[in-house]
UniProtKB/TrEMBL annotation:
EF-hand domain sequence ranges: 830-865
Organism in which the protein naturally occurs: Pseudo-nitzschia multistriata
Similarity comment text for this entry: Belongs to the protein kinase superfamily. Ser/Thr protein kinase family. CDPK subfamily.
GO molecular function: ATP binding; calcium ion binding; cGMP binding; protein serine/threonine kinase activity
The protein's name: Uncharacterized protein
Domain spans labelled Cyclic nucleotide-binding: 559-645, 692-780
Top-level division of the source organism's lineage: Eukaryota
Length: 869
């Protein structure tokens, strides 16, 4: 069956559907409340005559619609409903004619209506878990029926979480947004396009009235999103950036996603090729691996909740949305969201959307578990590849008929039907069969799915995209250059934790970000000219026919030929301190903990680890790496690490070397903060911790504020920020102070004092701490000498001026001659050993002299380097 046979649960809305997802998934349904209608007659009139009301409760039928009315600003409502008894099967209508038929004749849309049975209690205290309830024999009574006290407790818990984690400043101080221009409106919220004042990022701003916080759907989604946020997030999950309390409303800042739902893509473009589909489901599976690993089940996975970042198939990536039905199935005592007493979560039964739910959920014989999501993904994959639903091939079945087939052990999905699935590869059929195994215990897990050869792209065909494999073959001419550029970009981006790209890095996978960096035309494809960086005339001489193009699926496959995708479970130890290491890793998603010398540091999506062993002469690991969450990483072998370094500029090697030094230096600072006997001292603005000439045997660790280190009558050498140290010169050398330390923060400064004898004991006990802190001391002395010679603040914005000041004879490098002259100009007692130490501290390549690029990287470089100085 070709791609013109399409599922149409939510048809294209006559060209009016242009809303970005402001967690507007399923017509702006996320994080909403439940509003009781006043009477059944009014409800019936609204359903038959009015714009689609998604988000009201029918008292007569005891059903709840979990959604909102959605419309565009200044236009007619997006959704108009037909009869209120419209079955789910009508939403699963198969469009059998040409592609044009899929986008015409849809002036009225069939709004999806997700209805669930609710207990006969106060509608304002609706219990979603109870709505998913099973017979009392299967459920604890307290979960089956939620009384007003339980509802009140849950509401207060959610509000406490919102209050605890809210951003303290006002939303207007951080975002530009026009309150008169909504991009979407629901029954309980208004959605706006907003722009961050800090970095220009476009976000969705959702304003929700506090009077709707009684909704358990609201509470469920807020708690789930706060939990995901607390755990670090995932690039393929819609993320809550931050939230504010604004008078009578809560304001949520969410991802701004313009590509729409996967379902819309199916309608507009037809069924996917296996290669494209494998990438899409790989991204969904990665998100599910993360969710399941932190104890969450999505529980309502379907094409409407799988969003794509662009309308182009070539470069769109997945964002899984809508956590209003998410279920906690595990316990994590490290979170504020789940319980702290290691209590087993109460089981939850049911099927929010039966057409995408497994038999055990529809029958309510088993509680909701991660295996439910895997079945749902199997259904989605079947639809993506065939264009029809496995339990409603004709698109004309009633809801009851669909559920009956799901429940029946006799019905077999048409995976072997030649008309429907004859074009599928054996590997694709094998995957679908294993995902849709009726036994949840035998169903593939997310981790197992990610190991499947079809998901890894090894066996997926490219049949629907004609010529894709030939284009990919031609593009392999540029494979090494693509991979080297990805490697270089990923290294450099990891050092941008404080710049304008920080938020984008956190919410975008490295592969997506790298592909978009190549895609100069922003059309969803990478051309030869994007890789070569030359004009099209030159490319035609290099590549026959003017050069091939690739999409993001091709790009990921090219990278994976030498960069291995690795998936690790939470708690897994990737390597231990002292191990021999021959690979480094880029973090695509998840968080790892770095453990060394009694310290712990966390690295998250977009960062890398393991490079230290590849830079070490004996390949020794300097720390232990443990997964805090499920992790997806790209593994780079030492062989390709060395190839990428050799093919890149020398600046990349310097970046890696300096990054390794920074990490060791930060580890040493952490150890200092762990020492006993620290004493707190506070200073008001413009006061000094010490002045030049003082005799002191104390160093300081700044806790709050900003301290400027000054010489030559107030000339600034560097600034100290919280977490950094100052005053180490006198403690290490035993000499009097050779600078002033001035608090320059309006709110004052707070620092911890460490006595010199304790500091020296620490240096004697740890070679790594001694090496890192002595190197820091010598670099700072070099900068002081530069400032003393220039009689002006250190020129961070003009590093060439600083280099020229040290290289007075213009030899083009810093060697023992000009460095010793500089240092002894500041301090005649500076020893030859100390001069050699300065050169060693700046010489990242080990050549014996310092180039301008080395000095720039060591003393100025990126913001991390500057802050660590």
């Amino acid at each position: 069956m070709s791609g013109n046979r399409l599922i149409s649960r939510i048809p294209k809305l006559g060209g009016t559907r242009q809303l970005p997802y402001a967690v507007l998934a399923v017509a702006a349904t996320s994080i909403v409340g439940i509003l009781a209608s006043k009477n059944n007659n009014a409800q019936k009139r609204e359903e038959e005559e009015s714009p689609c009301l998604i988000g009201h409760q029918s008292e007569g039928k005891n059903t709840v619609d979990l959604g909102e009315r959605t419309k565009t600003s200044g236009s007619t409502p997006l959704c108009k409903t037909t009869n209120s008894n419209l079955s789910a099967s009508r939403h699963l209508k198969v469009i059998k004619n040409s592609m044009a038929a899929a986008t015409t004749g849809m002036d009225t849309c069939l709004c999806e209506r997700r209805t669930q049975q609710v207990p006969k209690n106060d509608p304002d205290n609706f219990d979603f878990n109870a709505a998913l309830g099973s017979p009392k024999s299967k459920r604890p009574q307290s979960v089956l029926t939620q009384d007003k006290t339980t509802a009140l407790v849950r509401k207060h818990r959610t509000l406490r979480l919102l209050d605890k984690y809210k951003t303290q400043s006002s939303v207007d101080s951080k975002y530009e947004w026009d309150k008169e221009k909504m991009i979407g409106e629901g029954a309980y919220s208004k959605v706006y396009r907003a722009v961050s004042k800090e970095d220009g990022e476009v976000v969705a701003l959702k304003n929700i009235s506090k009077k709707y916080t009684d909704s358990q759907y609201f509470q469920q989604e807020v708690e789930a999103m706060l939990y995901i946020q607390e755990k670090g997030g995932h690039p393929h999950l819609i993320s809550l950036h931050e939230h504010f309390e604004d008078g009578n409303s809560y304001i949520l800042i969410l991802d701004f996603i313009q590509g729409g739902e996967l379902f819309d893509h199916l309608i507009e473009m037809g069924a996917y090729s296996e290669m494209d589909a494998s990438r899409i489901v790989r991204e969904v599976a990665s998100a599910l691996l993360y969710l399941h690993g932190i104890g969450l089940v999505h529980a309502d996975l379907k094409p409407e909740n799988v969003l794509l970042t662009t309308t182009r198939r070539g470069d769109s990536v997945v964002k899984v949305a809508d956590f209003g039905t998410a279920v906690f199935v595990g316990n994590d005592t490290g979170t504020t969201v789940t319980n702290k007493k290691k209590l087993k979560p109460e089981p939850v039964y049911g099927a929010p959307t039966p057409a995408y739910s497994p038999p055990e959920s529809v029958l309510r014989t088993e509680p909701i578990q991660p295996s439910m999501d895997m079945w749902s993904l199997g259904v989605i994959l079947f639809i993506m590849l065939t264009g029809c639903h496995p339990y409603d091939v004709s698109g004309e079945s009633t809801d009851e008929e669909i559920e009956a087939r799901i429940k029946s052990t006799k019905y077999r999905i048409p995976i072997n039907d030649r008309e429907i699935a004859g074009h599928l590869s054996k590997s694709a059929k094998d995957l679908i069969t294993k995902l849709m195994n009726r036994d949840p215990k035998k169903r593939l897990t997310a981790y197992q799915m990610l190991q499947h050869p079809w998901v890894r792209g090894e066996t997926a065909t490219t049949a629907i995209i004609q010529g894709s494999d030939q284009r990919l073959s031609k593009f392999r001419v540029f494979k090494s250059r693509l991979q080297a550029k990805f490697f270089e970009n990923a290294i450099r981006w990891s050092d941008m934790s404080h710049d304008a790209d920080a938020n984008a890095k956190r919410k975008t996978s490295l592969i997506e970000r790298s592909f978009k960096a190549f895609d100069s035309d922003k059309d969803g494809h990478v051309y030869a000219k994007d890789v070569l960086g030359t004009d099209e005339d030159n490319i035609e001489e290099i590549v026959e026919g003017g050069g091939p193009t690739i999409n993001i699926s091709d790009y990921e496959n090219l990278l994976s030929e030498n960069m291995e995708n690795k998936y690790f479970a939470a708690g897994h130890t990737i390597y231990e301190e002292g191990d021999e290491g021959h690979a480094m890793y880029f973090l695509e998603s998840g968080a790892v903990e770095v453990i060394a010398d009694g310290t712990r540091a966390v690295r998250t999506s977009g960062d890398f680890f393991g490079e230290g062993a590849l830079l070490h002469p004996r390949n020794v690991r300097s720390a232990t790496l443990r997964c805090l969450t499920p992790v997806h990483a790209l593994k780079i072998s030492q062989e390709y690490f060395e190839k990428y370094i050799a093919s890149s500029s020398s600046g990349l090697y310097l970046t890696l070397k300096e990054k390794d030094k920074i990490r060791k230096r930060n580890r040493a600072k952490t150890i200092l903060r762990m020492q006993a006997g620290l004493k707190t001292a506070a200073k008001p603005c413009k006061s000094k911790f010490y002045v030049e000439g003082d005799h002191g045997d104390t160093m300081w660790i700044l806790e709050k504020g900003k301290v400027d280190i000054q010489v030559a009558g107030g000339k600034a050498v560097f600034s100290v920020y919280p977490g950094n140290i100052f005053g180490e010169h006198a403690v290490i050398t035993g000499n009097s102070r050779n600078c002033d330390a001035v608090c320059v923060s309006k709110e004052g400064c707070v620092a911890q004092a460490l006595q010199g004898r304790e500091f020296r004991k620490l240096l004697a006990s740890s070679t790594s701490v001694q090496d890192s802190l002595k190197e820091l001391y010598l670099r700072r002395e070099f900068k002081k000498a530069i400032v003393m010679r220039m009689r002006k603040n250190f020129p961070y914005d003009d590093p060439e001026e600083a280099f020229a000041a040290a290289d007075e004879k213009h030899v083009g490098r810093l060697d023992k001659g000009n460095v010793s002259a500089l240092m002894r100009e500041m301090n005649p007692d500076f020893t030859d050993e100390e001069v050699e130490g300065v050169i060693h501290a700046l010489n990242l390549t080990g050549s014996g002299s310092v180039t301008f690029e080395e000095m720039k990287k060591a003393l100025i470089g990126d913001i991390r380097t500057h802050a660590s100085m």
